[in-house]
Amino acid sequence: MEALLIPLAILVLAAVVVILVARALGRRRNAGVDSGPTGAPSSPEAARAAAQGLDQNQHRQVYALIARGQAVAAIQAYREATGTGLRAARDAVAALAAHPQPFREAAPADAPTEDSEAPQHFPYRYRAIASRGEVTREVSSTMLNDEIYGRIRRQAAEGDVEGAAAALCRHSDITLDEAREFIALLDD
User: Fold this and answer.
1) Where are the beta strands (DSSP E) in the chain?
2) Per-domain residue ranges of the chain
């Protein structure tokens, strides 16, 4: 019996080591899920900031290289476009790859950021749907997009129902009463 005690202790010790190594590798793998090559987190905000430094052609070129899997060429194109260093360009391209960003024209410094200006017409029809129980409302407009609809939803969630309804009315062809009904169905 004593002869089996030492090999059994070694076997138990080996099993514990294997379990600890497996956990450590699992943690390391999970920690790198939403991070760039350096382990630095790549967030949507970092991707938005990286995309703002590019004009339309540069944006298209960097994303074409990312789509083809040519990360090194994408980093080089980003560096040439923005003048950033290698590490910053690598992190920016990693953020852009992890959180794709549409091209947005840079707003002039004196342009108002409020929704008070005349709505812009987009080349597509955006559909927003709100429902609660069996009641469903839909707003379809060429003056809405994800960004504008997100601002309206945030405004409603913050308690400014009238402001949200007025913004929705301004960016669609519905009446203010219909907009109020729609906002009331949002469950934010």
Assistant:
1) 126-132, 135-141
2) 44-98, 126-185
Q: How do residues 43-96 score in pLDDT, each as one tens digit?
A: 888 888 898 889 989 999 999 999 999 999 999 999 999 888 899 999 999 999
CA distance 33 to 98: 10
Angle between helix axes 71-82 and 86-98 (nearest 10 degrees) is: 120
Phi-psi region at 43: left, alpha or beta (left = phi > 0; alpha = psi -120 to 50): beta
Distance CA 124, CA 141 (A): 8
pTM equals 0.40
H/E stretch holding 82 reads helix 71-82
Tell me the DSSP string of 160-188. -HHHHHHHHHHTSS--HHHHHHHHHH---
Angle at 60 between CA 57 and CA 93, to 5 degrees: 115
